[in-house]
């Protein structure tokens, strides 16, 4: 899922992660709050991928014309001329983020990187040069949500071809030198013990879905924190997608209203967008309780547009709303969570393992262990609220309703008295 990109940028560092046997290591680049794959070569393209978005919320490798010179027609020709490709030249329709409808030509190619080669890979070549501003999308989610029928996507093919022993991958989201490690875990990248939580089934009004479609986890509660002040934003369980390609927080209207009420302070609305006094929001963080594991995300990670009014700087937030049971069955956590938690996605076992991300400059050398079989080569334990997962569809009316706001420091001339009502 794609949300409007925030303009932020971070340099890459110098420390590398080596790939152990039975693992595939792909370095990423963190640009404008997104994780980009730029170190994978596609057969026939003549150059590595560039500006291709890593997406745990979709499942297809989709390449625009910028990433696949010649476009879909040339892609179809290459497919028909490649050995073992069969009749992969089917055309499918799809859409990503705010982009218009796309036509994808299904092609067979090969992918390679440092120390690995995937001899056969399926990709969709789009009929546009860019997809929502990106040259492509590297989807690695469950194949039940593939746009081009069901086929073996990158992690499944990597397992089938013996590059990895398990359809599992670890996302190291540190902004300095992010990476994704298929089939392994880097113990230098996190602190403490990996906490295990379930990937949930979507739940409707009467029953749960019988199969898993998206990488969603239970969030038991959410709070906004400023110094010693803590305001609950949600106390009802809800499943949220862990989506590396979504830089905003997608929530039910009740939780959105609660956050706006909690923030208080000077604000105004322009073109249906709420703007808040910058200095006040800079003091706030969000705490997401994922079945007992708390991840803290500073609110500035969700800053979007800036403007000035009466000599003060104001900012909007990357927020969007969903109506649970009507236009969605889950919310979406901002991909900023990956800056603070090391995340192992185990799609073979339908679990996620999380731990506190160790700051990049505090690490020693990489310590990579390959995953094989059902046992992990590193200590793990169940999250403390593992058995308090999402089983009943979220009902907004049952959730907390916030009517208080943070008491901002009165010494700041830009802070006004708190608001006690929601801003629509």
Tell me about this structure:
- Pfam families: Asp (PF00026).
- Keywords: Aspartyl protease, Disulfide bond, Hydrolase, Protease, Signal.
- This is Piso0_000831 protein.
- One of its GO terms (biological process) is proteolysis.
- Belongs to the peptidase A1 family.
- With 424 residues, the chain is mainly β.
- The protein is globular and about 60 Å long.
- The protein has 4 helices and 30 strands.
- It has a 15-stranded mixed beta sheet that branches. A 4-stranded antiparallel beta sheet has the order 16-15-21-22, covered by helices on one side. Strands 19-20-24-23 form a 4-stranded antiparallel beta sheet.
- It has 2 domains: 137 residues, Cathepsin D, subunit A, domain 1 (Beta Barrel); 257 residues, Cathepsin D, subunit A, domain 1.
- The two termini are 24 Å apart.
- Strand 6 and strand 7 form a beta hairpin.
SSE blueprint and pairings:
Blueprint: E1 24-31, E2 34-37, E3 41-42, E4 52-55, E5 61-63, H1 71-81, E6 91-94, E7 102-113, E8 116-126, E9 136-139, H2 154-160, E10 168-172, E11 179-182, E12 184-186, E13 190-198, E14 216-219, E15 221-226, E16 229-234, E17 238-242, E18 249-252, H3 253-263, E19 267-270, E20 273-277, H4 278-281, E21 284-290, E22 293-298, E23 303-309, E24 312-317, E25 319-322, E26 331-333, E27 341-346, E28 351-357, E29 368-370, E30 380-382
Parallel strand pairs: 4-9, 5-8, 13-30, 17-26, 18-25
Antiparallel strand pairs: 1-2, 1-11, 2-4, 3-7, 5-9, 6-7, 7-8, 10-11, 10-27, 12-29, 13-28, 14-17, 15-16, 15-21, 19-20, 20-24, 21-22, 23-24, 27-28
């Amino acid at each position: 899922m794609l949300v409007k990109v925030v303009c932020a940028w971070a340099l890459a560092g110098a420390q590398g992660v080596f790939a152990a046997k039975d693992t595939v290591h792909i370095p990423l680049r963190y640009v404008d709050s997104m994780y980009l794959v730029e170190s994978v070569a596609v057969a026939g393209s003549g150059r590595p991928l560039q500006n291709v978005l890593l997406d745990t919320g979709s499942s297809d490798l989709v390449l625009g014309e910028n990433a696949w010179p010649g476009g879909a027609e040339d892609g179809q020709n290459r497919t028909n001329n490649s050995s073992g490709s069969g009749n992969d030249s089917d055309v499918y329709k799809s859409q990503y983020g705010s982009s218009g409808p796309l036509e994808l030509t299904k092609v067979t190619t090969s992918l390679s990187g440092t120390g690995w080669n995937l001899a056969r890979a399926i990709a969709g070549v789009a009929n546009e040069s860019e997809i929502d501003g990106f040259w492509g999308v590297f989807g690695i989610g469950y194949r039940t949500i593939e746009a081009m029928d069901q086929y073996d996507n990158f992690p499944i093919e990597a397992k089938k071809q013996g590059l990895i022993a398990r359809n599992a991958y670890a996302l190291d989201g540190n902004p300095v030198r992010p990476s994704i490690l298929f089939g392994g875990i880097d113990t230098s990248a996190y602190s403490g013990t990996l906490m295990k939580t379930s990937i949930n089934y979507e739940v409707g009004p009467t029953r749960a879905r019988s199969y898993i479609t998206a990488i969603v986890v239970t969030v038991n509660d959410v709070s906004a924190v400023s110094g010693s002040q803590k305001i609950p934003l949600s106390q009802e369980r809800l499943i949220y997608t862990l989506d590396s390609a979504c830089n905003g927080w997608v929530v039910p209207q009740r939780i959105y209203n609660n956050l706006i009420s909690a923030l208080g302070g000077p604000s105004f609305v322009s073109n249906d967008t709420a703007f808040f006094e910058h200095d006040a929001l800079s003091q706030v963080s969000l705490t997401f309780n994922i079945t007992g594991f708390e991840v803290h995300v500073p609110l500035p990670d969700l800053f979007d547009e800036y403007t000035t009014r009466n000599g003060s700087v104001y900012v909007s937030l990357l927020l969007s709303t969903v109506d649970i049971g009507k236009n969605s069955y889950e919310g979406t956590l901002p991909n900023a969570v990956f800056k603070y938690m090391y995340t192992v996605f185990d799609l073979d076992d339908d679990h996620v393992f999380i731990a506190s991300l160790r700051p990049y400059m505090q690490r020693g050398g990489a310590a990579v262990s390959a995953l094989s079989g059902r046992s992990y080569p590193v200590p793990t334990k169940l999250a403390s609220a593992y058995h308090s997962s999402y089983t009943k569809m979220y009902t907004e009316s049952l959730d907390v309703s916030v009517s208080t706001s943070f008491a901002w420091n009165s010494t700041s001339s830009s802070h006004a008295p708190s608001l006690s009502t929601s801003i629509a």
